[in-house]
Design goal:
This protein starts with a helix and ends in a 17-residue tail after the last helix. Helices cover 74% and strands 0% of the residues. It is built from 12 helices and no strands. With 298 residues, the chain is mainly α.
Length: 298
């Protein structure tokens, strides 16, 4: 661990940069980092990622709150339901095999990548907020929370569309509110894990501090990175990472097939080419101008 600690902490900055730039996505990076670089057991890595993402999201709420982009009542209702689901997922995870947990996480990564590459349709940001269907919000919150607790994904990429569609929130407000929800769910999922998992607290603290610093850096970069380039490039990156995690769960004989790794390498090259093509076509709108289309949180 001592040899990989500086690398782990250095790469943890990217978790915070992701949260600062995209309003989420930290867990997509945190779990593979902690499993494959820090060499933590899967359940300990997921529990640690919940701590890192929870603290970093909580810090990320502050600038949104100052800008009045947090709908507190909506976030608390959704978040409380998500906390219940996340706690249940954290307790349930202790009875599931690590391979199943990582496979589920990889599937969520691929779903996230598809959403980021496709982009989010506008949902009428000018419309004012309407009365929330409470039962639907509670149900959606519980389901998203369950995913959070099981595989350590903050779920912001699911929360933002839900808040925008169900509550009629402008997408920037939905993003700020989602960070509150992510923090609540992450801490609840962590509480569920702590029944069965021991955390390396010094490592967790170091990674968390690095992620928080990265989130501050990400916030400074938001006005300098073209929106479509950032969203799609990160989406392709998540797609490759999800494919890598999924391949790692295959039986050893299948993983040894050169054709499989050739295909994965081809996917990676295609991702780079697609990101470069996106950069050439981008009109250059900065992320800070149109938050609604650029932050697939989670």
């Amino acid at each position: 661990m001592s040899a990989t600690l500086p690398l782990t902490v250095g790469l943890a900055v990217l978790i915070g940069v992701s949260l600062g730039l995209l309003g989420g996505g930290g867990s997509i990076l945190a779990v593979p980092l902690l499993v494959y670089v820090a060499d933590l057991p899967v359940r300990e890595a997921i529990a640690t990622s919940l701590l890192v993402v929870g603290v970093t999201s909580l810090v990320g709420v502050l600038p949104h709150a100052r800008a009045h982009r947090v709908r507190w009542r909506t976030g608390l209702v959704f978040g409380l339901a998500g906390m219940a689901g996340a706690y249940a997922g954290g307790r349930l995870s202790g009875h599931l095999p690590p391979t199943l947990l990582l496979t589920g996480f990889a599937v969520l990564m691929l779903a996230t990548a598809a959403a980021m590459i496709r982009g989010r349709r506008t949902t009428g940001e000018a419309a004012g907020p309407r009365e929330l269907p409470l039962a639907r919000v509670l149900a959606d919150g519980a389901v998203v929370g369950l995913a959070t607790g099981l595989v350590g994904a903050g779920g912001g990429f699911l929360v933002v569309p839900a808040l925008a569609l169900l509550g009629g929130l402008p997408v920037p407000v939905a993003i700020g509110t989602s960070l509150l929800v992510i923090a609540m769910k992450s801490f609840a999922g962590l509480a569920g894990y702590l029944w069965t998992v021991d955390i390396n607290w010094p490592l967790a603290a170091a990674v968390t501090v690095a992620a928080v610093l990265g989130s501050l850096l990400g916030g400074l970069l938001t006005s300098r990175v073209p929106a479509d380039v950032l969203r799609r490039s990160f989406g392709w990156f998540v797609l490759v990472m999800g494919g890598f995690v999924l391949v790692r769960q295959l039986p050893g004989g299948v993983r040894a097939d050169p054709a499989l790794w050739t295909g994965l390498a081809g996917l990676a090259v295609g991702a780079v080419l697609a990101a470069l093509a996106c950069a050439r076509r981008s009109p250059g709108a900065p992320v800070g101008v149109d938050r609604g289309s650029t932050r697939p949180a989670g």
